[in-house]
Amino acid sequence: MAHVITRPCCNDASCVTVCPVNCIHPTPGSPEFARAEMLHIDPAACIDCGACVDECPVDAIVPDDLLSPDSAFPEMNADYFRGREIAGTWTPPRPASDSGPLPFRVAVIGAGPAAFYTSGELLRHRGVTVDMFDRLPTPYGLVRAGVAPDHAATKGVERTFAATASREAFRYFLNVEAGVDVTLDELRARYHAVIVATGAAADRALSISGEDLPGSLAATDFVAWYNGHPDHAYDEIDLSGESVVIVGNGNVALDAARILVTDPEELACTDIADHALRTLRQSTVRHVSILGRRGPAHAAYTNSEFQAFASLSGVDVVVDPADLVLDPRTHRDEQAGTLDPTTSTKLRLARGYAARTPTGAARTVAFRYLSSPAAILGDDHGVSGVRVTRMAYSTDGTGRVVPTGPETTVPASTVIRSIGYRADPFSGLPFDSRAAVIPNDGGRVIDDGSPVAGMYVAGWIKRGARGGIGANRQCGLQTAEAIIADWAQGRLAPPAIGEDDVDALIAGRHGHRIDAAGWAAIDDHERAAGRIDGRRRRKLVSVDEMVRVAATAT
Q1: Using an 8 Å Cβ cutoff, are 149 and 143 in contact?
Q2: Measured distance CA(168)–CA(391) in Å, rounded
């Protein structure tokens, strides 16, 4: 028997550090790790010790004999190792030690995965304290407000974050907005180091006509709406039409499509926001088209998310065989048997869908490759469709796609653009508007070519909006290592002021800080409300209500 990594894999590589036989790959430090969709266990090398199962924060590792016979994951794990020579080992980080003058105070702005992974590494060092600030009353960032509600296992990473927050040297300053309730300069004066880990919550525009019509919206807003983010809880999402077009084919696009076509009664047992569940129960959407500019070999989604559509009940997945076009390089590699396993699996799944006979299901999801939106059609009353340009791979050998000329119209009453997230500038710090990041060198903020003393970044605002939850672990470790090195080498001046007056600063501006006890009260309230209906939790979506619940903490 071997263990198998399945769809909820968060790719944070914590399992790699405990494997005694180096059978989980790719490992941090290897060239493939940064590009990996998920990790894989070599079935020939696994000794069934179970150490990785205990370490996995999202319960993604399962013995192969507990998977259903038709599960694709054993083959996906094995595919990775076919024809691949595995070399090298992964060395866990060195044990923490005293690194510099004590105490050492750190402020973290943001409460998502990057913030927690960075904080967790810093707190391994004796004498470090971490105060975490977030403008929302709840922590965990996109794990709470971005992960799809039907992916409950993925949200299990919250246990890792909660363990960090339980440390005596950690304090929450939730419902506190940096720049409003406390300024960046005030934090810099009170802490040795300040880390900005605010993520990337804005969307990327298509820059085509009709993008601002009613019924055209960003996937960032749609995801936040169905996840109960307070900023979008009261958005009006109209699902009274039959057809939706989603532009983009990354995991967020697939999440949006899956939520639109899944039976609402299946979603009713998740932590989906109540307002979204009511709207989905009344939805008349029957057809979802997902547009991707390139062919299936270059689709941005992960294989595990793509494969998940095979198990959706009452849904036909449609792929036109004519869309299964390969660029010259992929075609050559496939013919030579040298195509990388991830791409090979991606093609196998797409061809499998294309070979299916439609069942006449009530809902359909169509993956339309080599299709680029040219314009969103409609008027002041709303969207009516999308004009789509057919693309083709260029003949110059570069793998570029170019328009072929013919255009078609895909009917739609709603259009969701899902072509990526981007960060907004952070007041008081430099910003690279093209890359949508704070300029940095390994996490150290850079301004005019020089490091800004005591200022650091982690997560998407550091490296751009790419990589899933687990990618933030390596990113956070890098930033933490930079901070510890600067501390040990005396590059960080002691704070000019103690941090004891931070609460007074917030209160003086009529802020209402929520601490660990307040968050625990919100968490308990949501879980208790969820248990009544057999749900993981029923989310509060009003900041005022969260503040009232937090105030009941004793």
Answers
A1: no
A2: 57
